[in-house]
Amino acid sequence: MLILDIFDRFFGRNGQQVIDPEAVSVKKYPLSAHLNDPDSRDVSYPFVAGSIAPSFPAQYNTDVSHMTRLWQGYLGTCVAHCYEFIKRLLDFNETGAETIYSRRFLYVLTRRFTNAVNTDSEQNQGLSPRDAAKILATAGIAKDSGQDDNSLPHSAYVNSYVVTDAMRSEAALYRSGGFAFPIIDSSVLKKAIMQNKAVGVTIGIDWSKVSPDGTVRPPAVLAGFHEVALYGWETVSGKERFIARNWWPELPNLYINSEDIEKVVYDSIVFTDIPNDLLLRAKQRQYVFLTDLKQGIVSDAVVQLQKCLKEYGLFSAAFSRSFGPATLQAVKDFQKLKGLTADGALGPKSRAALNESAGNTLSKSRLDLWCEAAKNMDGAKSYLNNPGNIRCNAIMNKNAISVSNNGFCMFPTYEAGYKALRDMFIRAATIGTANYQPTMTLYQFYAKYAPSNDGNDPNHYAEYVATHIGVSPSTMIKDLV
């Protein structure tokens, strides 16, 4: 019944897509923001934001009136536009002077960093926000040299761009600070805007749900993802909405009603001065291998795999994001060591062995230990990809692909389910939810999370989790993050 309800909400009873009567034909631009791959080491913004205010003003706007608006054109460069804009805004607020940086520099370096294939197809365009943030925080961004010609074909825009040593040296002077990931919640996003001027968010676009004034409603059928910068909120006709800087000439601003924020926004990043001790803890935290890896894959996870294998004395080549022959042989050797089938592919059993072994030498955060304990206790069915047995609600439905007969979310991948579990615990322990408050003890939390009327023993659950984390079951959950 729940599956049918969700289907009927997105489509009519006859299976046809529902067209919002308030929407009009909007000129379509490339939607080329890529969702961030879940990474258990991401620093969540509530870690560094301090307590969330109990209330906020009815209206707040970061002044962007002085900011020139640069058109995205017909290339999928919205992530580079967004982060160049935020970097420029932050610098202006510190110095009072506006410097135009090169979106093309940031876009090209990020594409090259990820070994992306650059063609003129829209399928081969765009960036992951986390990847762009890494480049901005490490390599920096060069000033605009007049080469930001986004009327070029995409392949030429990337492949013909020459990054000189002088440009790299200049870019190093204009690095951003650290970055963190706000959970998708109105209060958290408001705090991030007030503290850090703007928040980059990835929004889901359904062209039939974009109104003539730029209001973006929850998508029924996703056309793709777009990156914009939230910089304020306001109340219009009694309805609160967030204001986002956009890169389309007809709609310099987009608007997202606060009641829809968790259905429209999929990812968020804020640039912030993260305390050094927190960064150190984050860097020391164990890397949790969430995805299968095999020869031919190119990703940051491959580097982490090689580092772990080096600790075993099984890998001696130079670290690389590419899973090549040397990595293949090292994985086979690791599998032989652990009594597993030595096929060279890091599948579920090999990942579990690697994660368990790494846990003996590398520190984990309490939050990740909490997630691990919940996964062990719940024993969720593998086909659901839901390690915490999370029940679907308005927030979770957005990321779930289906709902089981008894109301549990089904996620597209294990890593998506793990991220949902982690975000749920962060939300409960930092800002609270309808069911959970940060001051709850583990005993009180599990009385609601695993209630006895569902056939659970909540006290046993709380005590198991507490033992796994190394705390008392009377510990308040706010102290676990």
Give structural notes.
It is a single chain. Helix 14 packs across helix 17 (458-469). It is built from 17 helices and nine strands. The strands form two sheets. Strands 1, 2, 3, 4, 5, 6 and 7 form a seven-stranded antiparallel sheet that branches. The protein has a two-stranded antiparallel ribbon with strand order 8-9. It is 37% helix and 11% strand. Mean pLDDT is 82; it is low at 1-21 and 359-363. The protein is globular. The protein is α+β, with helices and mostly antiparallel strands and 481 residues long.
Write the layout of secondary structure elements.
Blueprint: H1 2-10, H2 45-49, E1 60-61, H3 78-95, H4 103-113, H5 129-138, H6 154-159, H7 165-172, E2 178-180, H8 186-196, E3 199-205, E4 224-236, E5 239-248, E6 251-257, H9 261-264, E7 265-272, H10 276-284, H11 300-311, H12 325-337, H13 348-358, H14 366-378, E8 402-403, E9 409-410, H15 414-430, H16 442-449, H17 458-469
Antiparallel strand pairs: 1-4, 2-7, 3-4, 3-7, 4-5, 5-6, 8-9
Helix pairs in contact: 3-4, 4-5, 11-12, 14-17, 16-17
Rg, alpha carbons: 23 Å
Mean pLDDT: 82
Strand pairing plus helix content: what structural class? alpha+beta
Query: Can you give the helix content as a percent range?
Result: 25-40%
What's the tally of helices? 17
Strand residues, percent: 5-15%
Overall geometry: globular
Largest sheet: 7 strands, antiparallel
Listing every helix as H and every strand as E from the N terminus to the C terminus, the arrangement reads HHEHHHHHEHEEEEHEHHHHHEEHHH
- Poorly predicted runs of 5 or more residues: 1-21, 359-363
Distance between the termini: 37 Å
How many E strands? Answer: 9
